[in-house]
Model the fold of this input.
Amino acid sequence: KKEAETLKEHAEANKESADAKKDKKAADKAAQKEMHAELTQIEKARLQREKERQQRWREAAGLGKGGGRGRGMKALTMGVPSPKRPALPTEEGTPSKAAKAIPDVD
Done:
């Protein structure tokens, strides 16, 4: 009888310690999840600050408002198009073709 009672007490103690281990594991997992979420939030904020810093640098360097091609005025050209890149075609045709128009000889 004494052995059975001792075994019962031992089993109950093991059960309590197992429950305590489960609770501790769950608490650790929750803390880890919370820490991961906080780190993700901090990283997002850092990336946003870096993006804004790069944007301010581009605007200060005169590279326009970024994003697309040809937006904003370039500081080096002062708004004059580069001779390497001709103007867009107009109703008369492209500027280079308009100059090469061959008159009708009839």
